[in-house]
Amino acid sequence: MKKIYNYHPDTKEYIGESVPRKDPKDSEDYLIPAYAVEEAPPLPISGKVRLYVNGSWKYTEDNRGKTAWKTDGSGVSSVITELGAIASGWTLKQFVPFSIWDGSKWVLNRLLAIADKSLEVGAVREAKIAVGISYKFPDGQGTIQTRSLIDVRNIQTNVTTALIFKGAGEVRPVMVFRDQENVLHQMTPDQMLQMAVYMANSGQAIYNRSWELKDAVEGMTTEQIAAFDVEANW
């Protein structure tokens, strides 16, 4: 039985065999439709597809559906959708954090690990500062807002004003502070200064802990750094 071999019109990959129709004008001949040839494709090979290109069959890599990672260490990945070899600058070997690509594999790099974990420590530190500082005001519990530089400057202004009042001998609750919950608190100059000192000490404690963690990270192995949970160890 006569057979023909079909290939995809776009990708040119082999898609199967079929039986052609006989030519009604010549019983000894057959009608060969578009995207079909009489030449049989080569035997299949794992990981490759057979393409009919420029009049002959050839093999090409088939990585479709697989995930490739950029070799620049960014961790960027992409699912492959086209036939052919892996593009330059990409690999099928899964990215390993804190690693550099040596041309054939990912190699752990301790300096990268330290730098990345230090950035994480800094991010956690800033997040903790931005949450605000819980404080017991003279008239009840509240939160000192420290989300931005504007908040810090507002407190610095209050401190300056409190010092002026204190220098003038003022002891009455003549100052007003709005907390993060938008509650107003009447405070004496001394109380305002006490609050500012508490805020400064609390902020310094957060910074001190971040420095301790960064120092600890520098004494770890690359594997220990990768597994180190900043938030859990704060």
Helix and strand topology:
Layout lengths: L3 E4 L6 E5 L2 E3 L2 E6 L4 E2 L10 E6 L2 E6 L5 E4 L6 E3 L10 E2 L7 E3 L4 E3 L1 H22 L1 E5 L2 E5 L4 H19 L7 E4 L5 E4 L1 H30 L3 H6 L7
Antiparallel strand pairs: 1-2, 1-5, 3-4, 6-7, 8-9, 8-10, 11-12, 13-14, 15-16
Helix pairs in contact: 1-3, 2-3
Q: Can you tell me about this structure?
A:
The chain is of the alpha+beta class. It has three domains: 4-61, no CATH class; 67-108, no CATH class; 112-227, no CATH class. The chain has four helices and 16 strands. The strands form seven sheets. The chain has a three-stranded antiparallel sheet with strand order 2-1-5, with no helix packed on it. It has a three-stranded antiparallel sheet with strand order 9-8-10, with no helix packed on it. The longest helix is centred in the last third of the chain and has 30 residues, at 189-218.
Unreliable sequence segments? none
Radius of gyration: 35 Å
**How many individual domains?**
3
Q: Biggest sheet: strands, sense, closure?
A: 3 strands, antiparallel
Percent helix among the residues? 25-40%
Structural class: alpha+beta
Strand portion, in percent?
25-35%
What is the CA–CA distance across the termini?
76 Å
Strand order of the largest sheet: 2-1-5
The residue-averaged pLDDT reads: 96
Instruction: Give me the strand/helix succession.
Output: EEEEEEEEEEEEHEEHEEHH
Shape: elongated
Q: What is the number of helical segments per DSSP (H or I, 4+ residues)?
A: 4
Number of DSSP strand runs? 16
